[in-house]
Amino acid sequence: MKLVVIGGSGNLSLAESIAGRLGTRVCPFEANRFPDGELHVEVPATVRGGDVYLVQPTGPPVDGHLMELLLLADACRRAGAGRLTAVVPYLGYARQDRRVNKGEAVGARVVADLLGVGAFERIVAVDLHNVSLEGFFGIPLEHLSAVPLLASALEGLVTDKSVLVAPDLGAVKLAERYAELLHRPITIVHKTRLSGEEVRVYGIVGEVAGRTPVIVDDMVSTAGTIEAAAAALSAAGCLREITVVASHALLVGPALRRLSTLPLKRLLVTDSLPVAEHGSLPLQVVSLAPMLAETLARLNGGESMS
Ligand code: R5P
User: Fold this and answer.
1) Whole-angstrom Cα distance, residue 290 to residue 58?
2) Distance 219 CA to ligand 1 centre (A)
3) Residue 54 vs residues 65, 148, 246: alpha-carbon distances, Å
4) Is the pTM of the predicted complex or chain greater than 0.85?
5) What distance in angstroms lies between residue 250's CA and the mean position of ligand 1's atoms?
6) What does pLDDT average to in each consecutive run of 10 residues of the chain (306 residues)?
7) Which of 42, 138, 162, 181 would staple 158 via disulfide (CB 3.0–4.6 Å)?
8) SS3 97
């Protein structure tokens, strides 16, 4: 089937990069808004019969990007697309994967239903907040990981003094994967979230005195988690030379201010979301385009994903 790549506004440059590696170009579509704010999209007739990949991370504005993805899927299906795959390098709402308080919604399940029921045949995602989210989807999910790419970017930068830090209990498995690849020990920060922007750290499990911390997380959003972990690590005597590694750089709200006050040596992230240069921030971006292009080529060719 003819491979067609469509790039939503969530990260057009990543979609272009993926398409370029596949020897094609992103298929243009029209998007405009009605005066009341409703989004209207129109895809070209060239999607007919195609194996269509809609590349759209649902980062901020999360609802807008999600709606654009759903409208594009509907437009492609009505235009006769042969097969539809959502390529969602960052999935918004994934953190709402359980109810902490009784009155809450499970946002991740709602989004999985929106994408899975009728909209797409398959989803490609990268480093979902929780691996068990796969069970929320009733359609096949190709769950890729940027961890090997990020770990390989860290090789040569970690030393005998480096220690991998899980900034909360949820990041322990992730830290273990980095530890296995980089052959370094791990330390765990005991964190509790107070609100969307605020967290509290209760303590650290592991030895950090005199070591250089490499904090690993799935995402940096407001950087409250990183800020709190950094303060606890400093208090525990680690060296003032922090590396932060995350698959998804949301960097919203107070994130830049918080990061700018830290003794940050490196912020290593992927381009799952558009990442702009931020002045003095020591940002290093690893592109997901090669891995995603390879994945799309294999899916299109019906090849093994292993
Ligand atoms: C939490 O469970 C996640 O893994 C991240 O630690 C968290 O979402 C990061 O958010 P923030 O940067 O706002 O602390």
Assistant:
1) 20
2) 6
3) 12, 24, 24
4) yes
5) 10
6) 97 98 97 98 97 98 98 98 98 96 96 94 97 94 98 96 96 97 96 88 92 98 96 95 98 96 97 88 96 98 86
7) 162
8) coil
Query: Biggest alpha carbon distance in the chain?
Result: 62
- Beta-carbon neighbour count of residue 304 at 10 Å? 6
Mutate to test the pocket of ligand 1, among 225, 259, 262, 269 (most ligand atoms within 8 A of CB): 225
- Catalytic residue status for 191: yes
- 87-110 b/e with 16+ CB inside 10 Å = b? bbbbbbbbbbbeeeeeeeeeebbe
> For 229-293, where are the E strands, in sequence order?
242-249, 264-270, 283-286
Q: Which of 62, 219, 262 to mutate to test the pocket of ligand 1 (most atoms within 8 A of CB)?
A: 219
Kindly report, residue by residue over 48-72, the tens digit of the pLDDT: 999 999 999 999 999 999 999 999 9
Domains 3-145+289-301 and 147-286 are alike in CATH topology: yes
Q: Which is catalytic among the residues 2, 102, 161, 191? A: 191
Q: May I ask the CATH class of domain 147-286?
A: alpha beta
Domain layout of the chain by residue ranges: 3-145+289-301, 147-286
Architecture of domain 3-145+289-301: 3-Layer(aba) Sandwich (3.40)
CA angle 280, 282, 287 (to 5 degrees): 130
Cα 275-276-277 angle, rounded to 5 deg: 125
Residues in the chain: 306
